[in-house]
Amino acid sequence: MFDNLVESSSHKDDIARKGSFIGVTALIYGVLLLTFFVAGIYWYDNHLDQMELELTTLVAPVPVPQAPKQEQKQEEAKPQKVDQNVDVRKELIADVAESRLPPKEISAKASDVPPVRSNVTTVIGGSNSNAQAPMPAGPGSGAVTTTTAKVQIADEPPPPAATPTPPRAPISGGVLNGKAISLPKPAYPPIARAAHAAGTVVVQVLIDENGNVVSAHAVSGHPLLQGAAVGAARQAKFSPTKLSGQPVKVTGVIQYNFVSQ
Is 171-258 in CATH node 1.10.3720.10? Predict the structure, then answer.
């Protein structure tokens, strides 16, 4: 037992010596690295003035003056010299009193060109002006043609075709017993009477736009009473239901109460 204790104490001292050696070695290496690092900084500062360094300066480009754009001169139209004793019109338009020459087109907007004056010589020019001293129209000049032209008026476009209204989905009406115009009572089946069957039968119905029941099926109630209730529901009649002025289908339920007899 004492031998084991001596060996354990010796092993512990050996580990402590190794740990101390490793710690001292790491400390020495750390001091050496720190010394080299500090010495490098001092060496770099001492030799900084001996290094060849280039200074680069960024200079903005000199703006090149753009040549001024030459303005394009448009030649102005020279006014046409016309005699002062004639009328000038951009377009020859007959007066409304002149029935021999029908207009080219019918428009509700008044024309900017004044009509040709009667017994005055008129020429076509770039403006509309009247002569200060009108010269009467002579033979062969300023005559109004007497050829009648046929004016064609385009037919009015046909009215757009009526778009068919898509069918509306049936609306829910809930319990429809109080909304029926005619609600026949179902017959009590003999087999149900013999079995003393009673209770409420609920029938789901679909009513069309005219108020007629188009489909019916029982959703609850005694099985012996459902057939009679569905048959009576198919004979029921309702007033048409309208939504935004349009007749629509209605879905709902009809309740029938059977009392045991």
Answer: no
Return the structure tokens found at 134.
């009108």
Q: 184: which residues sit within 8 A by CB, 6+ positions away?
A: 232, 235, 236
The Cα 247–Cα 233 span in angstroms is 21
Please report, for residues 34, 203, 209, 223, 227, the alpha-carbon distance to residue 220 in angstroms, rounded to integers and kept in the order given. Answer: 96, 7, 26, 8, 11
> Bridge-partner residues for 246, per DSSP?
243
DSSP state of 253: E
Domain boundaries, the chain: 81-152, 171-258
* Residue among 190, 228, 226, 231 at smallest CA distance from 213: 231
How far is 249 from 173, CA to CA, in rounded Å?
Answer: 10
Q: Among the listed ranges 6-15, 53-62, 79-88, which one has the minimum average pLDDT value?
A: 79-88
CB atoms within 10 A of CB 159: 6
Question: Has this prediction a pTM greater than 0.70?
Answer: no
